[in-house]
Amino acid sequence: MAYFTNIDKIKYEGSDSTNPFAFKFYNPEEIIGGKTMEEYLRFGVAYWHTFTEDLSDPFGVGTAVRPWDQYNGMDLAKARVEAAFEFFEKLNVPYFCFHDVDIAPEGSSLKESNENLDEITAMIKDYMKDSKTKLLWNTVNNFTHPRFVHGAASSNSADVYAYAAAKVKKGLEIGKELGAENYVFWGGREGYETLLNTDMGLELDNLGRFFNMAVDYAKEIGFDAQFLIEPKPKEPTSHQYDFDVASGYAFLQKYGLQNQFKFNIEANHATLAGHTFEHELHYARVNGLLGSVDANQGHPLLGWDTDEFPTDLYATTLAMYEIIKNGGLGRGGLNFDAKVRRGSFAPEDLFHAHIAGMDSFAVGLKVAQKLLDDRALENIIEERYSSFNEGIGKDIVDGRTDFHKLEEHALQLKEIPQQSGQLERIKSVLNQYLLKAYAGE
Ligand code: XUL
Ligand code: CO
């Protein structure tokens, strides 16, 4: 059965097109920096926001109107799979991502939930045979059900801990069955509300043990996906342990997991942590930990995780700058962990939203590649640190100094010349590149 009957396959028509159901900048075959746009951007559709989401918010019920609304239970789950593969094909996306509960309803027991999952996984596998769309990553939802009220792998209850482990075990098996490129851990409830009732040391150790057991089980079943931690500082808990990339990296090192994991970096989580998106990407990149991206954006006036589709061209340009410098995302991709606004409830809005996000990252890719080709920012940075290329600076970098030698050098200095950081000039260079790309130059 077809669900989006009034929509044809979305094609690239160029920046002059006025067709709302066409890409204006995303041209999958266009070569940028030696790769096609499709290979570079590796877009993914988030199943939960696109097929499961009803657009409710804390003040109101769902508004989404969906062509599969008439179904319930397992019939609904099956209708969503049919609709999803029609959507992937029409949008021409290479990847999708899901949580266990997005694809199949939970049963009245773990066993029944697993049976539901098996049935839908088999159906998805069947659809994947005739589709170019692959699984970028899967994960399990260990945060919505009331049993996870005090956490999952950081719960005070050993039974809940075991239940959470059983769900991840199943998630790893499903990932293997569907050939997932990555497996994601986002710890929605892995944190605390108050330290007054929390044994943080035990919770962190348990979390470390949990991740190590997940690595062991993936090895045992021969599931070779890249494991990813998705940091988020807060929401729903007031403090989450995987606060940002830096704290996640410290955690991985403490529990001997730094070679097993990379990070899945979400733009809106970065800003919730008080960082820019590019800060998180950069921090991960320079430490060899940039795995994948949840592409979205937060609302500048709202302090929570609004999960908007990414349309800010500065942000997409600076993100793609990091991704190109990283040599691409490897097995990762750009998953739209983004939802249409509550007022954008029509099925067509799902297409508009993805087209907007894909076009915005295509612009970002083009502008970032040009900036790098021209070394527009690289030359400025190289010049700024040139004092480390010779003399005492080179000795510091080569590890040939100590405090005696540095003091000796400092004592014979007369005046230290200061250099301007030229921030405004640099920002205008960025504007110039963005506007040149817009003008098609
Ligand atoms: C929540 C969030 C999750 C993860 C996967 O803020 O981003 O959807 O991406 O669990
Ligand atoms: Co996310």
Description:
With 441 residues, this protein is of the alpha/beta class. It has 16 helices and 14 strands. The strands form 4 sheets. An 8-stranded parallel barrel has the order 5-6-7-8-10-12-13-14, surrounded by 4 helices. The chain is globular, with a radius of gyration of 24 Å. The protein starts with 10 loop residues before the first strand and ends with a helix. The mean pLDDT is 97.
List key phrases describing it.
globular; 8-stranded parallel barrel; binds cobalt (II) ion; alpha/beta; 441 residues; two-stranded parallel sheet; binds D-xylulose
SSE class: alpha/beta
Rg value? 24 Å
The tally of helices reads 16
How far apart, in Å, are the first and last alpha carbons?
44 Å
Give me the side-by-side strand order of the main sheet: 5-6-7-8-10-12-13-14
SSE run: EEEEHEHHEHHEHEEHEEHEHHEHEHHHHH
Largest sheet: 8 strands, parallel, barrel
Apparent shape: globular
* Helix content bin: 40-55%
- Strand count: 14
